[in-house]
Amino acid sequence: MKYTAAVLIVFWACFFLYAEESIENESTRSPYELSLVLDSTLLAAGGLLYFASPQVVKRDHSLGEDAYSRDSVNILDRQATRWYSRNSSKASDHVRDGLLYLPAVFVLCPQMRQAFPDIALLYVETYLLTSGTTGVLKNAVGRKRPYMYNPSLPRKERDQGDQNWKSFPSGHTTAAFTGAVFTSTVFSDYFPGSSWKIPVWSACVTAASLVAYLRVRAGMHFPTDVVAGGAIGTSGAVLIPYLHRRNRERAALIIGPGIGGENGICIGIRGSH
Predict the structure, then answer these.
(1) Disulfide: which of 68, 88, 94, 231 matches 218 by Cβ 3.0-4.6 Å?
(2) pTM
(3) 228-271 pLDDT, tens per residue?
(4) Pairing between strand 265-272 and 250-257?
(5) What are the backbone angles phi and psi of residue 250, rounded to the nearest 5°?
(6) With left for phi above 0 and alpha for psi between -120 and 50, is residue 2 left, alpha or beta?
(7) Which tens digit of pLDDT belongs to each residue from 181-196?
(8) What is the C-alpha to C-alpha distance for residues 30 and 38, in angstroms, rounded to an integer?
(9) How many CB atoms lie under 10 A from the CB of residue 53?
(10) Which residues of 149-187 are buried (b: 16+ CB within 10 A; e: fewer)?
(11) Of 229, 236, 235, which Cα lies nearest the Cα of 214?
């Protein structure tokens, strides 16, 4: 898996060549539009989270009496304390890197090449926000990694290193889902009528899920860590393109009297363009 990034780029290059006929009739107009206020705000918020949070949010990571007790781990995560694999950890690095660079393949698509700088900006905003949020939570929660409960490892190895306390949420999983879901979302927005949407989503999400699995098998994260990381990456990768979408549907919260003369209030959501 060492050359995963190169393999993924080659795969997508072949994909665009093969699928070009099916998407050539799609509109070449970008589905996104930039806004000075919106993009400045997103970049500032993402930059603040990404660069400043490790210095602002800190936690006392001193060891307690239950530091090495598996019984202190909830039942859903306890099994992960029995796993440890350096090979799985290295493999997760390579797959994550491939997914992080995956949006770069859009420059290969003729319909998207002209708007690629805009897509790149959206991706930078997405990455800063998702990675920054993950960094804040890592430092604030200070959760011990599963391998710290594994008696097969020397205690000296389990104690050393600042990274031992950054289990929640999984940064690798956040990054993998950020790249995978962003790529799938942008492809779907550009080619809403393409029959390739399901294969693209399936391949990207499967690869991101593989990263999550490898992080747990490596003993680096608990299942709840990777679920949280996947949720953060997915949310940001869907939200940022949505906020920039042309003529996007806006949801309005409506609160009014009860229907039919009944006492109380009625709460609903109305879509508008």
Answers:
(1) 88
(2) 0.81
(3) 999 999 999 999 999 999 876 544 434 455 545 455 444 454 54
(4) antiparallel
(5) -105, 135
(6) alpha
(7) 999 999 999 888 888 8
(8) 17
(9) 19
(10) bbeeeeeeebeeeeebbbbbbbbbbbbbbbbbbbbbbbb
(11) 229
Domains in the chain (CATH in brackets) are: 4-272 (1.20.144)
Is residue 146 within 8 Å of residue 224, measured between CB atoms?
no
CB 86 within 8 A of CB 218: yes
SS3 per residue for 172-207: HHHHHHHHHHHHHHHHHHHCCCCCCHHHHHHHHHHH
Q: Give 140: exposed, middle or buried? Use CB within 10 Å, 0-12, 13-18, 19+.
A: middle
List beta partners, residue 24.
none
State how far the alpha carbon of 163 is from the alpha carbons of 135, 149, 218, 220, in Å: 12, 15, 14, 10
Q: Show the tokens assigned to 123.
A: 């991706």
